[in-house]
């Protein structure tokens, strides 16, 4: 996967009120539907922190 190859992949919630998916719900869907592991979820969360616009 891109994540395994070191690509800085993130999980986002673009317009959650309109699309009905907040970040926590998106993570839950990845775990439920794609079998995402805790290690993968942790890496995605760390990537999000590293990629944020405000520091």
Describe the structure.
The protein is an all-alpha fold and 55 residues long. The protein has one domain (1-55). It has helices at 16-19, 23-34, 38-51. It starts with 15 loop residues before the first helix and ends with a helix. 0% of the residues are buried. The model has no long low-confidence stretch (mean pLDDT 89).
Q: How many domains would you count in the coordinates?
A: 1
Principal-axis shape: globular
- The topology string of helices and strands comes to HHH
Q: Biggest sheet, in brief? A: none
Question: In angstroms, what is the radius of gyration?
Answer: 12 Å
Strand tally is 0
Strand content: under 5%
Poorly predicted runs are none
Distance between the termini: 28 Å
- Report the mean per-residue pLDDT as an integer: 89
Summed up, the helix count is 3
Helix/strand-derived category reads mainly alpha
What topology emerges from the helices and strands here?
Elements: H1 16-19, H2 23-34, H3 38-51
Brief overview:
The chain is mostly helical.
């Amino acid at each position: 996967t891109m994540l395994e190859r070191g690509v800085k992949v993130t999980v986002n919630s673009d317009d959650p009120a309109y699309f009905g998916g907040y970040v926590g719900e998106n993570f839950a869907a990845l775990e439920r539907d794609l079998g995402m592991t805790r290690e993968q979820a942790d890496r995605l969360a760390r990537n999000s922190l590293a990629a944020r616009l405000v520091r």
